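Note to self: keep these together.
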Amino acid sequence: MINATAASLGGEVPQLPEGIVTAWSTCYDMAYSRQDTPFQHWARAQGAAQACQGWGMLVEQAAESYLLWRGVRPDTAPVLEALATL
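Structure:
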């Protein structure tokens, strides 16, 4: 499940049907912050196998843009590792 709403930015979670998330679910919030987003907290409380936020998408999109502009794709692993320690 991908949360592409702005709800997490306002500290909220989109209204979703009960039981939509299971132990097999992966939930991804396109929003990102230093702490887990409200959507991540909600997904974990629903029993999701994984609940991730949008840092990866942000970093990978930046790398693709850099590739288009400069012809070189930067290594994103160190950036993602640094963000994981915030």
